[in-house]
């Protein structure tokens, strides 16, 4: 990890652009703008994790060690309310690379219907852009992340070219599922992975550590560290452990003029710039805007609609698993190779729904051993009994936007700098629960067709979030019902932009990072134009 | 089923211990008292080496926590422990826990841990509460021995390809075993062979024709 004494954390002089957050959105924007000649400053609250990635691997595998990415503690305090507790610090990473440091790495395009859910089905909201508008940027994003995929998905939206890398071949476990799915008329297809199936962009191909989430020691899995590195090579300056606490605006209230941040030595600095881009996630983007309240903007910056923080969404997990009377060869790799989007566009339920065939069902012997209360031959017998015949399916289910799910700040609870912490208010409605039930129904049908003894299920009563923070600074054409416009620039301030999934008006049921990247590529193009002007 | 130094090196590589002595097997010979590298308590200098006392204690513990059919424990543990000792903080904590275990063995059973019978070593660890203890690097003595001795050894064993094969997975989590094995229906014949004759002898007593496959269990 970076040493606070080793880095100059003073502001960048004459910056054209200040980017808050060094995750995938911030990293891509920083790289593109620096490459175009702009003077770019990136302020990242967390550290650089530049030591051996194997340290994080061991921290993940061995009980008794700290969180691999140092989340939690006074810096990351939060509160949770609503019907469902939200485990925020399990759901994000602060550091250069952001949450891609711990992500799974699944990267699908949203479907066409996701951009027009209100028009098509009378629920949720329409995006101010269509799939066709984003389509070329999706292709660029796939090249940026290095997506391994195949054009074998009959339910995917139209695409113009193959993925940059070949898909990972299906697993033996997939072949077992294929027998049942063929009988049931369910189409399986490959999973687009932001993980190198062959060398790409200076990074290794996957070597099978099996620990993708939360750490890939080989570097085969994309993390935004690669874009930060490219941005720095192109001249951007990235300041880690720079906790941005407030954005200041000018006397007209039309432009942001500075981001104030505090460094580990306790010093507070002002980073001025011509353009400001927020890329610190669906929770911290909100917090920063609300902490930046002023006389002119008593409810927080860019919040004339009153919607900053509203419509917080996540994807919900549904899963089911059991055992067969045959080897299933699980836990060799930590990623999936097959899924089905066959039910994604169904109208009943209207919520998007995608199903995954897991390659990591059941326990891993090494992790089991480290938690066991015996050893020797007893342990070996226990491990043999526990490993080898598990199968499982997962699913992501769409949560429709609901104004009563929101992120705000909790003035009663402060972090170690004395700033109010983020407060997440989150509940899961009946419609989402019905979609979870539908996912479970399909999963049970498949598992029973396989002849599996079903041993567990995660559904409406015990579901949890997939850690995709969306919707809290929604995109739209109407300043009264949205926070940013179709360019992802705030309606209220002419030089303040928001990159990331907080701008999603709806979230579909696809892992959001490819869409985050596509929007970041698009946003960089718009900001570049402003900088030139 | 025979463990090798190569197995230990594979696990060490997964933990980022590469280069130098960690991969040069002939450099793993532990220092001796005669070489003058051992301190009063049996620990070593700052060159990443460890004492014979520590490796003997760790090996003696491994003989208990590893399955009884395991061969080659001494070479495997020595290689692993010396490789781990390249991390000074890890080396010191492991040394302290091993020496502590040795002290307790002398107090409770009247002999060095490594000189006790396997049954006594097993009993001592269980009486000390190590089996039920949470692994805590700086916890109480049971927790420290669980973390720095038992779990260190279990990790080395079950994250190694050979240890994994014994359970039916030739590419266990933590081992960079490539992307071919997840596609295969069974372990390769070579992998099955490496599990060793003991496994097949055990099954030969079964009425079924198991044909040497360890994944048919």
UniProtKB/TrEMBL annotation, chain A:
SUPFAM superfamilies reported in the protein's UniProt record: FAD-linked reductases, C-terminal domain, FAD/NAD(P)-binding domain
A Pfam family the protein falls into: GMC_oxred_N
Ranges for domain 4Fe-4S ferredoxin-type: 196-226
Cofactor names: FAD
GO molecular function: flavin adenine dinucleotide binding; oxidoreductase activity, acting on CH-OH group of donors
Keyword Secreted listed: no
PROSITE patterns linked: 4FE4S_FER_2
Record's keyword terms, sorted: FAD, Flavoprotein, Oxidoreductase
Cross-referenced Gene3D superfamilies: FAD/NAD(P)-binding domain
Keyword Flavoprotein applies: yes
Family according to the record: Belongs to the GMC oxidoreductase family.
Protein known as: Oxidoreductase-like protein
Organism, scientific name: Haloferax elongans ATCC BAA-1513
From TrEMBL, chain B:
Sequence segments annotated as region (Disordered): 28-49
Superkingdom classification of source: Archaea
Record protein name field: Tat (Twin-arginine translocation) pathway signal sequence
Organism whose genome encodes this protein: Haloferax elongans ATCC BAA-1513
């Amino acid at each position: 990890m970076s040493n606070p004494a080793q880095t100059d954390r003073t502001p960048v002089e004459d910056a054209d652009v200040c980017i808050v957050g060094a995750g995938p959105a911030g990293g891509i924007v920083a790289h593109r703008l620096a490459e175009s000649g702009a003077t770019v400053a990136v302020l990242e609250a967390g550290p650089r994790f530049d030591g051996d990635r194997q340290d994080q691997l061991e921290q993940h595998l061995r009980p008794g060690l700290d969180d691999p990415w140092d989340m939690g503690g006074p810096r990351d305090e939060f509160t949770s309310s609503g019907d469902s507790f939200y485990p925020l610090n399990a759901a994000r990473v602060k550091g250069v690379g952001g949450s891609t440091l711990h992500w799974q790495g699944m990267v699908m395009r949203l479907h066409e219907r996701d951009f027009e859910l209100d028009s098509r089905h009378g629920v949720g909201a329409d995006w101010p852009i269509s799939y066709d508008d984003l389509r070329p940027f999706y292709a660029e994003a796939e090249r940026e992340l290095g997506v391994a995929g195949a054009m074998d998905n009959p339910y995917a939206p139209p695409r113009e070219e193959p993925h940059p890398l070949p898909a990972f071949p299906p697993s033996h476990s997939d072949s077992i599922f294929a027998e049942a799915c063929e009988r049931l008329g369910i189409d399986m297809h490959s999973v687009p992975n932001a993980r190198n199936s062959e060398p790409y962009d200076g990074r290794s191909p996957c070597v099978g550590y099996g620990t993708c989430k939360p750490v890939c020691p080989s570097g085969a899995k994309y993390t935004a560290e690669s874009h930060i590195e490219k941005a720095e090579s192109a001249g951007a300056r990235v300041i880690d452990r720079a906790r941005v606490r407030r954005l200041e605006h000018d006397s007209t209230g039309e432009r942001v003029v500075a981001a104030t941040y505090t460094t580990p030595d306790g010093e507070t600095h002002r980073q001025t710039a011509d353009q400001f881009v927020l890329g610190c996630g669906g929770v911290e983007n909100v917090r920063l805007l609300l902490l930046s309240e002023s006389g002119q903007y008593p409810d927080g910056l860019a919040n004339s609609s009153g919607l900053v923080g509203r419509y917080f969404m996540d994807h919900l997990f549904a899963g089911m698993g059991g055992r067969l009377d045959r080897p299933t060869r699980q836990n060799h790799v930590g990623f999936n190779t097959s899924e089905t989007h066959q039910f994604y566009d169904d109208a009943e339920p209207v919520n998007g729904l995608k199903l995954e065939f897991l390659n990591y069902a059941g326990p891993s012997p090494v992790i089991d051993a480290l938690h066991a209360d015996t050893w020797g031959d007893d342990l070996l017998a226990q491990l043999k009994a526990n490993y080898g015949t598990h199968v499982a399916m997962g699913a992501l289910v769409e949560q429709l936007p609901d104004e009563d799910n929101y992120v705000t700040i909790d003035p009663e609870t402060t972090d170690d700098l004395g700033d109010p912490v983020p407060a997440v208010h989150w509940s899961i409605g009946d419609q989402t629960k019905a979609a979870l039930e539908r996912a479970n129904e399909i999963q049970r049908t498949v598992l029973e067709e396989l002849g599996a003894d079903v041993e567990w299920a995660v559904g409406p009563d015990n579901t949890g979030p997939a850690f995709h923070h969306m919707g809290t600074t929604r995109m739209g054409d109407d300043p009264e019902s949205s926070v940013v416009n179709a360019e992802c620039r705030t309606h209220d301030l002419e030089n303040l932009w928001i990159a990331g999934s907080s701008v999603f008006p709806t979230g579909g049921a696809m892992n959001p990072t490819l869409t985050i990247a596509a929007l970041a590529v698009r946003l960089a193009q718009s900001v570049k134009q402003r900088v030139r002007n | 089923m025979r463990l090798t130094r190569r197995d230990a090196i594979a696990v060490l590589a997964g933990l980022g211990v590469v280069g130098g002595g960690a991969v040069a097997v002939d450099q793993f010979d532990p220092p001796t008292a005669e070489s003058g590298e051992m301190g009063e308590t049996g620990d070593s200098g700052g060159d990443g080496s460890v004492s014979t006392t520590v490796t003997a204690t760790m090996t003696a513990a491994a003989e208990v926590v590893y399955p009884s059919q395991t061969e080659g424990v001494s070479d495997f543990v020595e290689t692993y422990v010396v490789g781990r000792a390249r991390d000074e903080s890890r080396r010191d904590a492991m040394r302290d826990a091993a020496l502590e275990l040795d002290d307790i063995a002398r107090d409770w059973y009247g002999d060095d841990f490594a000189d006790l019978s396997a049954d006594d070593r097993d009993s001592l660890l269980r009486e000390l509460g190590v089996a039920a203890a949470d692994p805590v690097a700086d916890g109480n003595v049971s927790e420290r021995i669980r973390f720095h001795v038992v779990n260190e050894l279990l990790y080395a064993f079950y994250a190694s390809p050979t240890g994994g094969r014994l359970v039916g997975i030739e590419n266990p989590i933590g081992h960079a075993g490539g992307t071919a094995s997840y596609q295969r229906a069974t372990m390769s014949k070579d992998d099955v062979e490496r599990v060793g004759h003991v496994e097949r002898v055990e099954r030969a007593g079964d009425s079924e024709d198991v044909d040497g496959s360890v994944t048919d269990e």
